[in-house]
Amino acid sequence: MTRAVCPGSFDPVTNGHLDIIRRAAAIFDELVVATGTNPSKSRLFDPDERLEMLREVCADLPNVTVSGFTGLIVDFCREIGAQAIVKGLRGGNDYEYELPMAQMNSHLTGVETVFLTTHASWGYVSSSLVKEVASLGGDVSALVPDTVHGRLVERVAGRR
């Protein structure tokens, strides 16, 4: 059985994330969507909220589970017996950022990284951009799942 981890901050989860999750779920026997803590990023939603949103949007995928983790992703992979890490790439900048991490992860534990290119319709979508546009009153309803959209609009309205 092949088990992979799809890590991210998912703050919030976007339709681009969900596309990668769905496609990875079709490739691996089991996919664990894992949200961790990255101190270099500012968060709109706390870890429990992000886990809850991920569970909601992944509920129809029987081979997908959602989990939180702290520390190195490769340590989490080792703990759960995952053979691979799945990362989505929107373009060259993502590749430049992700390649050294993939090489380090392989060096540390032998866990392989599988890159999936984003569908062209989601190539410009990032959680950061979605949050920025939403905070300025822009319509991001087509960029995030419906259940996430309501929470996002409520959260950014509370911060204005």
Helix content: 40-55%
CATH classification class: Alpha Beta
CATH topology: Rossmann fold
CATH superfamily: HUPs
Cofactor: Mg(2+)
Pathway: Cofactor biosynthesis; coenzyme A biosynthesis; CoA from (R)-pantothenate: step 4/5
Keywords: ATP-binding, Coenzyme A biosynthesis, Cytoplasm, Magnesium, Nucleotide-binding, Nucleotidyltransferase, Transferase
InterPro entries: Cyt_trans-like (IPR004821), PPAT (IPR001980), Rossmann-like_a/b/a_fold (IPR014729)
Structure description:
- With 160 residues, the protein is of the alpha/beta class.
- It has one domain: HUPs (Rossmann fold), CATH 3.40.50.
- It is built from 6 helices and 5 strands, in the order βαβαβαβαβαα.
- The chain has a 5-stranded parallel β-sheet, sandwiched between helices.
- Helix 4 links the parallel strand 4 and strand 5.
- The chain starts with a strand and ends with a helix.
Salient structural properties:
160 residues; alpha/beta; Rossmann fold; five-stranded parallel β-sheet; 6 helices; 5 strands; 18% strand; globular
Question: What's the gist of this structure?
Answer:
With 160 residues, this protein is of the alpha/beta class. It has helices at 15-27, 47-57, 73-80, 92-109, 127-135, 146-159; strands at 3-8, 30-35, 64-68, 84-89, 112-117. The protein contains six helices and five strands.
